């Protein structure tokens, strides 16, 4: 059984401004990213996390299909929160404030 690190809080992982969590767990070979998120218990800490529909990544690289992505030994699963505003729109808003 490999050790998979599930990260529920870091600059690139799921976190709220008021709280972040790091949860480590061991899972069997062949466990998917979604299964690891469910087993981690992160939903009990952050009820807004939706393992079935949320975006996830491994070490900052987005996983296209988390429910099919099998984890490897040492993987760090990151749960991303939805963007509050489109980055392009945020830049436009900042430029308008300056100008």
Q: What features would you highlight for this structure?
A:
single chain, 99 residues, alpha+beta, 5-stranded mixed beta sheet, 3 helices, 24% helix
Largest sheet: 5 strands, mixed
Structural class: alpha+beta
Share of residues in helices: 10-25%
Q: How are the strands of the biggest sheet laid out side by side?
A: 2-1-5-3-4
Strand residue content? 15-25%
The number of helical segments is 3
State the shape: elongated
Please report the total strand number as a whole number: 5
The average pLDDT value, as a whole number, equals 81
Write a structural description:
The protein has 99 residues and is α+β, with helices and mostly antiparallel strands. 24% of the residues lie in helices and 23% in strands. It has 3 helices and 5 strands, in the order ββααβββα.
What's the layout of helices and strands?
Blueprint: E1 2-7, E2 22-27, H1 33-40, H2 42-45, E3 55-58, E4 61-62, E5 76-80, H3 87-98
Briefly summarize what is shown.
The protein has 99 residues and is α+β, with helices and mostly antiparallel strands.
